[in-house]
Predict the 3D structure of the following.
Amino acid sequence: MLARKSIIPEEYVLARIAAENLRKPRIRDRPRKARFIAKNGACNLAHKNIREQGRFLQDIFTTLVDLKWRHTLVIFTMSFLCSWLLFAMMWWLVAFAHGDMDPSTENTSNSTKWTPCVTCVRSFTSAFLFSIEVQVTIGFGGRMMTEECPLAITVLILQNIVGLIINAVMLGCIFMKTAQAHRRAETLIFSRQAVIAVRNGKLCFMFRVGDLRKSMIISASVRIQVVRKTTTPEGEVIPIHQVDIPVDNPIESNNIFLVAPLIICHIIDKRSPLYDISASDLALQDLELIVILEGVVETTGITTQARTSYVAEEILWGHRFVPIVTEEEGVYAVDYSKFGNTVKVAAPRCSARELDEKPSILIQTLQKSELSHQNSLRKRNSMRRNNSIRRSNSMRRTNSSLIVPKVQFITPEGSQSASET
C-alpha cells in the first residue's frame, strides 16, 4: 500500500478530483419568486415607513375590526376596566365631598336624619362595586343612590351613556369580525394548478373553481389579471404591472352560475399577454396570473371576494381537467376528490402566435396524437392476444398433465391385454 501510494503524487490526485468536479454540471435551485397573491388569497405585501399613523385612529371602527382577536379582546377588557375604575374614582370623590366617608355621620345619622349621596359607600372598594353595578345594570343591593346630590345624578347619567357606547362598539366589532366577507371565501376553492390546452381549435388557459356550500354566490363574476415586471421604452421599471385579460363566457354578462364546479377558460389570442409564450418559454417567464372571484352571499347579502394566483411553475402545458360531475339516480353528484386532477392531452408546444400563423401545426399534432393512440391500442391488443395465447397454452399443458397413461396387464396365461383406464 505504501508503494502504491508513492507511485501517484498527491498533487496530481487533487488536481484530477478538482477537474472531475468541474466537468460535472451543478444543478442549482432556482430562486423562489415572491408571490403577489398567495394561494389562500392573502396579499403578500408589507407596509413599511408609514409616518401618518394617526389616520388609523380617525377610522377607529375599521381599525378594531382589522385587529386580531386577541388584541380586540384585550382592548375591550381594558376599556371596561378603565371605565369602571374612572367612575369608581368619581363616586368616591362625590361621597368624600359630601362627607359620607366621615365616621361621625354614621353615628349621628339616626338623630339628624343624615342622607348620603350613595348608601353604603364607605371606601374605594365599595365605590368600585357600585360603579360596576351602575354600568352593567346588574341591580342595586344595599348600595343605591339617593336624591341628596345633583352631582351624583349627573355622574350616573354620564356613566350610563359611556357604558352604552362601549357596549355598542363591542357588539358591532364582534359582529363584523364574525361576519366578515373573507370567511365565506374559505369555502370557495380553486384548483392548485392551471392548464393550457386546445379548446375549439384555440390555445386556452384554464382553471377550475368550485363552491363547497349549498348556499349559492349570487352574481358571481371572475376576473383574471397578469402581474409581471415590465420596463417602459423610456427606461422606467414597473415592478407590479397589472394587465386585465378577458374570460371566455358564452353569456353576454360576465356573471357565472356557480351551482357546480366550473372550468374558467381564457382564450389566448392577440389581446392576451400569453400570446407569444410557448411551452419552452413558460418556465422562464416571470409572471403571475391572479384570479379574483366576486359575488354576493345568498344568506347574508354581503359581498365576498376569493383570490388565488398561478405562477409559471403551476401551469401545466398540454393537460386537461378530468370531469367530476356525474348523474346518479336523477341527482348530479360532484366528486371533489378529483377536483384538481388533470390528464395529458395532445397540444402544440408552440405559442399561440405561431399557431395562428401556421394552422397546420395543430393538424399535425392531432394526427400524431391519433397515430400514437392507435399504436397504443395495437400494443394493448397484441399484449392481450399474447396473454390469451399464453393462458391457452398453459391450460393445455395442465390438461395434458392430467391425462392418465395407458397401462398393459399380463394375464397368468402369458397373453397381454391392453386396457385404458
